[in-house]
Amino acid sequence: LIWPLDILLLVIWSANIVNILATVQLRTIRPIYVTVWWFIASPIWLAVDYAIGNVIWRPGDIWGAPSGALENSLSDAILNWWYSHNLFGLWLTPMLVALTLYLVPRITNTPLYSYTLSLVSFWGIAFFYTGVGDHHILQSPTPAWLKTIATVSSWSLLIPVFAFTINILGTMKGNWDKFFTNLPLRFTMTAFFFYFLTNIQGAFEAIQPFNKLTHFTNFVVAHAHLALLGAFTILGMGVIDYIVAQVYKRPLFSRSLTEWQYWLVTVGFTGFFSVLTLAGFQQGFSWEQGIPEVNVLPQLHAYFIARGIFGAMIVVSGIVQMVNIGATIFTNTHERRRRETLRVAEAIAPPVTGA
Description:
- The longest helix has about 35 residues, at about 75-110.
- Helix 3 (about 75-110) packs parallel to helix 6 (about 160-170), helix 3 packs parallel to helix 10 (about 220-245) and helix 6 (about 160-170) runs antiparallel to helix 8.
- The chain is an all-alpha fold.
- The chain contains 14 helices and no strands.
């Protein structure tokens, strides 16, 4: 973006930060639940990350060229990966963790498993995440010390990830029956699983031999989609379904549509991710054998056809949710649910007539 828009975005985010901090300051209950920690940290980290990543101290000609470039191209690449990866880790990840730590105890009506593990996950991500971005450019002429930091940080990040994982699984103990009956919880836990898998993949991408095999292949594309589509989008779908029902104080228009939404996006994404991962390995192993890319591309044809089919399922899932949410807002779902319940009851036990 041009420099004035960069500054405008920072002003907007700063207003958001002030609003959040002032709201927290006005609280009547002094202890702060863990979700609020993440909601405080996320916009602060985002503003700092955006300011540094877009190099706002170098505005260029202000109105014409985008800001965000360093003089040295290698330094610019290093900064770009630091910036883009931190958008995921210090902005989106806090929102995912916060919402999961809120929804799981709330829906299951179970206290959070461990306050201590929440501390470990929060401060662990705060300290370790900023160094992981450069594990995507291990095959570039970046300094060896930077590659070491990226590798160590990527594996150290598993400490807060496992702390968060244990916390959620501990909270879910004895509540797994709700996974099958409560659809927002099912979306949340599915996203949680994909988030966990994302971090395992990220750690392996920080290992030089594995990075050499998968870098510049569709494996990295699959990995990025695993985070942004598999984790955050599916969580977002569940949050929308949950919040709309709460705000409008009525059940969703159709549970069947929500089931279709869930299975379309889950099966669609799982297939989408799987074929891209396989295509990545196909590319990596072929390049190791010295096969030129132009000869590898025809081997990927079937993978991309499958990607299109699975991607269409994901799009249809979003359309199904739009229809369901719109119908929830503009119809009396209480009355509809009452009629459905009455119809089921009469099917099971028909009313007695005569006499």
